[in-house]
Design a protein that fits this description.
The protein has seven helices and 101 strands. The chain is mainly β and 1517 residues long. The strands form 24 sheets. Strands 1, 2, 3, 5, 7, 10 and 11 form a seven-stranded mixed β-sheet that branches. Strands 62, 63, 65, 66, 67 and 68 form a six-stranded antiparallel β-sheet that branches.
Length: 1517
């Protein structure tokens, strides 16, 4: 049955509407909106007809806006009844009407939320609620406010958010570089992590600068470590990117923005890219570069990060990460101007200088002049000092136009000043003054001094960093040297450690209160142990100072001489030795939490203890006569108690450090047993003695414990201080000599056995075991304290004396050895808990057991939630020696609570929580286990319900790999179920899908399968040829590796014949059969095949045969005949050959030609086999002039190319020798006078001939140009004259022969008209027409005349005579009564002249004139000479433009108009289009050239006179 989930509004307080209007607890049903991002809650399951819940048709849009601007959101909602709209914000209220205004426009149905003059604190996530009685709709929108300037309240606000536990805003993704505010306190000399990040992203040339900046001087060490780090970083980067290159550090651009660049390819396009500044993630945008401060743009492979609106707080350390791996780091520094540029007043032609000093070295500043960037060049010099602090701009050769504002920019800092250029009044007018050698300007201050002071500051900072690093190195070297254990001092030799052994930080000092010989052991260095040997004569066996939590004590001597222990440094310990004569046994002062105590004396003289420095401790020794034994003051809230003396006098105990506890041990006679101060919550107690003498225990450090061992004779048994939760106890000796055990950090040492019973110490270190050796006389073989989880036990003695074991540190065990004379083996010290309780989770219905382990056998009690527990009711309480157990047989909910175990003053507690392992419903589990089947490109969804639980972790896995939300994976976690959505599934996404529910009690898993269906993969190759005959080809293949999730149904086979492009389907076969027989083949032909696999999803990609398969065996043709060279030239070699004599019965398709260059062994094919040459000749054009080649030919049939022919003879690619010959020359050329003459003659000759030109068999004039090119010679006369008319002869001569050719060139012009025409009738019906010859007749032998006739009947002009070389013509068929007119033209190669008119001949020519009866009449004449009505205008067209040039001319008869360019007539030049229409003369140039410029002149001429006008044409570029 389908169940609908009921939800409640989860809006937190302060985020939703006001409580008085909105209760926020309506029970409803979740609905889906058509607008993404809208959450709808419907209050009732079924809505009444015509009613609807609220919804958004237009939701608010996220906004990023600058501070102080007008911000607003708009929304449109629907619903019936009409919803009420309320706005709110996540962090804060919107009730202030001055800052927030809600408006509604009923016309557009828009709800507007306005924020005038928006402030940075208004940046938040806002919510818009629309509600009616049937439901509620809610949408969120983000407002980002860009701050203007630095806000001092920003940091306190963030701190306040942390203080108010607003972790949602504080918890951000962090870089591996910790922000400055969160950086831990650096150790002295520690290198900044930014140093390594900068080096890994920098060029090698910048290594020295970065090392100097951070104070690193050991370059060898730096390079070694850098290479190691680079290898690790490159391995990490290779998981996300490839081809990382072109890293450009951050720099400031000319537009005021800062940017850095790098190039790489993302292996996964969905990988996230993060930007950090000083370890803090910074938001950026990819689209809104003009709206947000930070922008990351991608251009191809290049990623460009840029910042706009730079401010001083933008300086910092920037990093770019892909996922969690750093790709690039760069440091953005801001510099300031110590000395700014000043105004400069310069004279004209003087140099001006602007100078400034900056606070940090910078290789280049950006200089601007009048808002334009300036660069080094002829006009400007940009100078930088060696220390890169002083920068200068020199404006050379100042002119008045250079006046303006000049600026220097260093990042966001800039300064500017005026340059004032004054004119040189003394300079002569109209002349340019000489350039001055002086400079004007400068800052007016001692720039060098300012720069030196700044450099000293920078050098001092750099040296301080170097000193810190050097000190840290030396300290590390000393610590490393101190880690090696020191050798035990030989008997009788102290190796001059003397009375002043230096020890770092001694922790504690024991009080030696015995008169017997003491053999003390030195403290362990950081993990080692040094012990002093015992001497038979009681002389001192010194132990070197133990560094770093070590111990050093002075030895005891029989003669009472001094046994000194050097001052313990750095938490070390130093104690004075005991002397028999009571002389002074000094203990050096314990420094830095160290301890020093004075030794005990028999005569009661004072045993002084040096003062404990810096939380150290000093205690006075005990005296037998009861005199005062002083102890230095105890520091830091410690507790100190004085020891008891035999006579009852006061025995003081040094102060306990850091909440430690120190108590005196119990003695049989009631005297006080002193305990050294316990450090850091440690405990120290004195051991018990049978005779009541003093048994001291050193102070326990850091929750450690130290106890003194018991002795039969009452002599002192000291236990060294237990470090780091450790325990150390001293062993017992029969003769009362001192047995010390000192437990240190992590080494192992065991004492050897001695025949004389002298001291053999062993110190067990670091989980090692140390045991005392056995002695022949039964004396004690001591075992030193086992540290950090080790075990130390005392050896057995033959006489049954006590064998003590040193204290076990850090949850160790220390037990006493067995004695033959006493039933009990003591483990010295008070009871303690070695293994306590901790919090556990128990499964409901399953047993649970809690165990407490003590170091001694003692009783204890159990409590639950303050109530005592006893066995019974499902609980068992047992005790086995020192182990206490509480067992719950079947856990229930009521068993949850706080359990506490108490033994005396000791206690430990732990909480038990009872619960269940998560579980799935059987039906849901069965449903989930069914595989999900989808097609490629579809989404796959999985859903698994479960019971809501606290502390439940839900994880999804695919093939064992955990899936994370992001990219194509969407994971939704609801209280009662979880959903997994895999978008756009691929075939490779198929596999096992698993969900895991995990809580503190256990985990449960459910498994399903994802099957992504796709078309199958291509069949597996290669294609095998099973059989090939002249009629059958059989092929075979293998099934595809991937069937696409569904079985292959069949295979489809296609075939292509070689030489064809068409693929033909042959058929298909069933999936069980992976072979095919092609029976439709032709013998000798080759075929290619391709096979497709098909399943219900479609066809696979094809599997194609690698090579064509031939039907039958291969039959190749024999070799053709040897190729012959037909002809050669420098560009082509022509070949021919004969077909092969034996074609083997297979038709020849064509031929393949190969060439080989002389002195080479490689044959190159000139055509492919599939492009055969069908003829038996071929022109080889792929040749190099002058090179020699040989050729061979192969015949091609269906089987391929056969054997090659023998090679041809060597042929050189050059033209053959030949006598010069001219190709299609013209023998006559007419040119208008004034135009250029160009005579072009093409020729062929080999070798190239020598060309000579002659004019009328004489050498040509020097102004005539001859241009010779390959295969052509050209004669050019720039501006021809009539005298240039002649016969020009070209002569070509080479070694083979010579050739001549004549060209007649005639330079002429349009002929002038003939003279007056006369008519005379000699015979009836005939009229003789005669005229005066044209003036050009003598100059032009090709001039002739044309006669036209006009009669009154036809009224048309017709040519009656042409090509007349005489000056007379006889007209026939002249009839009476008809008027005749004649015109005579002169004509040459240039054209016709103007006509000469004859008088009228005909009916009225002989009429007698009529008298006017005495009335005189005037005859009117319209003839007039030419005149210019509209002259030419000046033109200046650009090159390549068109041009019209016009003028107007009048005259009668109509004048002849000529155009001249630079006195050369251009009427016949085709580059100019010239027209004359009714006296309007026009000249048109389509595209103006440079040589079209010059003087243009128009000349109008008629029989009455001449007129002209001119203009100039200037062509602009």
């Amino acid at each position: 049955m389908f169940k609908r989930t009921k939800v409640t509004d989860g809006t937190a307080t302060g985020q939703g509407p006001d409580a008085e209007n909105w209760d926020g607890k309506e029970v409803g049903f979740r609905k889906k909106s058509k607008v993404p991002g809208v959450m709808i809650t419907q209050y009732i399951e079924k809505l009444p007809e015509g009613k609807s819940h609220p919804d958004f048709t237009r939701k608010p849009i996220a906004l990023t806006i600058q501070e102080g601007k007008f911000a607003f959101f708009k929304a449109i909602v629907t619903g019936d009844p009409k919803p009420t709209v309320v706005w709110s914000r996540n962090n804060g209220d919107v009730s202030d009407p001055a800052r927030y205004q809600s408006k509604y426009d009923p016309n557009s149905n828009e709800h507007t939320f306005e924020m005038p003059h928006v402030k940075p604190d208004q940046a938040d996530t806002y919510k818009c609620f629309a509600k009616n009685e049937y439901g509620q709709a809610m949408v969120t929108v983000v407002l980002n406010v860009i701050e203007v300037g630095f806000k001092m309240t920003k940091a306190p606000q963030q701190q306040a958010e942390v203080a108010n536990c607003n972790f949602k805003k504080v918890l951000k993704r962090r870089s591996k570089v910790v922000p400055k505010a969160e950086e831990p306190e650096k150790k002295e000399g520690e290198i900044d992590p930014k140093f390594w990040e900068l080096l890994m992203s920098a060029d090698k040339k910048d290594y020295e600068r970065i090392c100097a900046e951070f104070g690193v001087t050991d370059f060898r060490w730096m390079l070694k470590k850098l290479n190691e780090m680079k290898r690790e970083r490159e391995e990490e980067q290779a998981e996300f990117v490839k081809n990382l290159s072109d890293l450009k550090p951050i720099h400031i651009n000319a537009d005021g923005t800062a940017s850095f660049e790098l190039e790489f390819d993302l292996l996964d396009p969905s990988s996230s890219i993060y930007l950090y500044k000083d370890g803090e993630m910074i938001p950026y945008t990819k689209e809104l570069g003009d709206k947000m401060k930070h922008c990351l743009r991608k251009v191809g492979r290049k990623y460009i990060f840029s910042m706009r609106d730079l401010m001083p707080e933008d300086a910092g350390f920037y990093q770019l990460d892909v996922e969690d791996v750093n790709m690039f780091s760069t440091d953005f520094k801001m510099v300031d101007f110590l000395v700014k540029i000043q105004e400069v007043k310069a004279m004209e032609r003087e140099d001006a200088v602007f100078e400034c000093v900056i606070s940090a070295p910078l290789s280049k500043l950006m200089w601007f002049g009048k808002n334009m960037p300036l660069e080094q060049g002829d006009k400007y010099d940009i100078e930088v000092s060696e220390d890169k602090l002083i920068h200068r701009l020199v404006v050379k050769d100042c002119m008045v136009v250079d006046k303006g504002i000049y600026a220097a920019c260093a990042g966001i800092k800039s300064c500017n000043a005026w340059l004032v250029v004054e004119a040189d009044k003394g300079a002569p007018k109209g002349k340019k003054t000489a350039r001055k050698t002086t400079r004007a300007g400068g800052s007016g201050t001692d720039l060098q001094k300012v720069a030196q002071e700044q450099q000293q500051i920078l050098d001092k900072e750099r040296e301080e960093r170097k000193e810190k690093i050097k000190a840290a190195r030396e300290a590390a070297a000393e610590a490393a040297a101190a880690e090696e254990p020191e050798k035990t001092a030989d008997s009788g030799a102290g190796k001059d450690k003397g009375a002043a052994v230096k020890v770092e930080r001694i922790d504690k000092t024991s009080v030696a209160a015995t008169t017997t010989v003491a053999g003390d052991s030195g403290s362990g260095h950081s993990a080692g142990k040094a012990s002093g040997g015992a001497k038979q004569d009681g002389s001192h066996a010194d132990a070197g100072g133990g560094h770093s939590a070590g111990k050093a004590s002075g030895g005891a001597r029989k003669d009472g001489s001094i046994a000194d222990a050097g001052g313990g440094h750095s938490a070390g310990k130093a104690s004075g030795g005991a002397k028999q004569d009571g002389s002074h046994a000094d203990a050096g002062g314990g420094h830095s939490a160290g301890k020093a105590s004075g030794g005990a004396k028999q005569d009661g003289s004072p045993a002084d203890a040096g003062g404990g420095h810096s939380a150290g401790k000093a205690s006075g020794g005990a005296k037998q006569d009861g005199s005062h034994a002083d102890a230095g003051g105890g520091h830091s809230a410690g507790k100190a108690s004085g020891g008891a003396k035999q006579d009852g006098s006061h025995a003081d105990a040094g102060g306990g450090h850091s909440a430690g506890k120190a108590s005196g041990g119990a003695k049989q006679d009631g005297s006080h047993a002193d305990a050294g101060g316990g450090h850091s919550a440690g405990k120290a107690s004195g051991g018990a003695k049978q005779d009541g003498s003093h048994a001291d225990a050193g102070g326990g450090h850091s929750a450690g414990k130290a106890s003194g061992g018991a002795k039969q004779d009452g002599s002192h048994a000291d236990a060294g201080g237990g470090h780091s939760a450790g325990k150390a106890s001293g062993g017992a000796k029969q003769d009362g000599s001192h047995a010390d055990a000192g437990g240190h950090s992590a080494g192992k040492a065991s004492g050897g056995a001695k025949q004389d019973g002298s001291h053999a110490d062993a110190g067990g270190h670091s989980a090692e075991e140390a045991s005392g050796g056995s002695r022949q006389d039964g004396s004690l073989a001591d075992a030193g304290g086992g540290h950090s989880a080790g075990k130390a036990s005392g050896g057995a003695k033959q006489d049954g004396s006590l064998a003590d074991a040193g204290g076990g540190h850090s949850a160790e065990e220390a037990s006493g050895g067995a004695r033959q004379d006493e039933p009990l083996a003591d483990a010295g010290g008070e009871p303690g808990i070695t293994s306590g309780l901790s919090d556990i989770h128990a499964i409901r219905g399953q047993p649970a057991e809690l165990t407490v382990k003590m170091n001694t056998d003692c009783d204890g009690a159990w409590f639950k939630d303050g109530e005592p527990l006893k066995s019974g009711g499902g609980i068992s309480i047992t005790k086995d020696a020192n182990i206490h157990k509480l067992t719950i047989h079947s856990c229930r909910d009521t068993d949850s609570g706080l359990l506490r175990f108490v033994s005396g003053d000791l206690s430990t507690e732990g909480r038990i929580t009872v619960g269940d392992v998560p579980e799935f419903d059987e039906d849901d589990l069965h449903k989930f286990s069914k595989p999900v089947i989808v097609r490629v490109g579809q989404n796959a969804a999985f859903k698994m319900p479960f019971q809501p639980q606290e502390s439940l972790t839900v994880s999804w896995f695919k093939d064992g790999t955990e899936l994370k939300d992001g990219g194509g994976v969407k994971i939704v976690r609801e209280p009662n179920h979880s959903r997994l959505l895999l978008r756009d599934c691929l075939r490779s996404d198929s596999g096992e899908i698993k969900i895991q529910l995990k809580n503190p009690f256990g985990a449960v898993e459910a498994t399903s399968q994802l099957i992504v269906l796709d078309r199958p993969g291509p069949p597996e190759g290669p294609v095998e040829t099973v059989e090939t005959t002249s009629s059958v080809i059989e092929i075979k293949w293998n099934p595809p590796k991937d069937d696409g999730g569904s079985a292959v149904t069949n295979y489809i086979i296609e075939r292509q014949e070689r030489g064809h492009s068409l693929w033909t389907k042959l058929g298909d076969v069933s999936a069980e059969k992976t072979s095919f027989r092609d029976r439709n083949v032709t013998h000798g032909k080759k075929y290619s095949y391709r096979i497709y696999a098909e399943n219900p999803q479609g066809l696979s990609d094809s599997l194609e045969t690698a090579d064509s398969i031939m039907a039958g065996i291969m039959i190749l043709s024999g070799p053709p005949g040897k190729p012959k060279v037909v002809s050669t030239s420098k560009t082509c070699i022509n070949l021919t050959w004969t077909p092969p004599e034996d074609d083997k019965g297979v038709p020849i398709i064509g031929y393949q030609v190969e060439k080989r260059k002389k002195d080479t062994n490689q044959w190159l094919a000139l055509n492919a086999i599939n492009e055969p040459i069908e003829d038996v000749n071929y022109a080889v054009k792929d040749v190099t002039e002058g090179a020699e080649y040989e050729f061979r030919v192969s015949a091609i049939n269906e089987s391929g190319a056969g054997d090659a022919s023998p090679p041809s003879a060597m042929a050189c690619a050059k033209n053959p020798n030949m006598r010069p010959c001219f190709k299609d020359p013209e023998d006559f050329l007419v040119v208008r006078a004034g135009n250029s003459v160009r005579v072009k003659i093409s020729y062929e000759a080999e070798p190239p001939p020598h060309i000579t030109w002659l004019k009328d068999d004489e050498p040509i004039a020097p102004w005539i140009n001859v241009i010779n090119t390959e295969g052509m010679s050209q004669l050019v006369i720039p501006s021809s004259k009539r005298s240039d008319s002649a016969i020009y002869t070209i002569k070509a001569k080479n070694s083979v022969g010579e050739a001549f050719f004549d060209v007649e060139v005639r330079v002429t012009d349009e002929p002038k008209c003939p003279g007056p025409v006369e008519l005379e009738q000699t015979v009836y019906g005939k009229v003789a027409v005669s005229w005066v010859p044209s003036p050009d007749q003598e100059l032009d032998d090709r001039l002739y005349y044309v006669v036209s006739q006009h009669d009154s009947n036809t009224r048309m002009w017709k040519t009656v005579a042409d090509r007349l070389f005489a000056n007379t013509y006889t007209a026939h068929n002249i009839l009476p009564g008809i008027e005749y007119h004649f015109r005579v033209y002169a004509k040459n190669d240039m054209g016709l002249s103007d006509p000469s008119q004859s008088p009228t001949w005909g009916a009225n020519s002989n009429r007698v004139p009529i008298s006017s009866n005495g009335v005189s009449s005037m005859e009117i004449s319209f003839e007039r000479p030419p005149s210019i009505l509209v002259p030419l205008k000046v033109h200046t067209p650009p090159k390549g433009y068109q041009l019209y040039m016009t003028c107007a001319v009048r005259g009668c008869p109509t004048p002849n108009v000529s155009w001249y360019l630079n006195n050369t007539c251009i009427n016949s030049d085709k580059n100019y289009y010239i027209t004359n229409s009714c006296g309007v003369c026009s000249m048109y140039i389509l595209r103006v050239r440079e040589n079209d410029g010059g003087e243009y002149r128009v000349v109008a001429v008629n029989s009455l006179g001449k007129a002209e006008c001119s203009t100039k044409l200037t062509v602009r570029d």
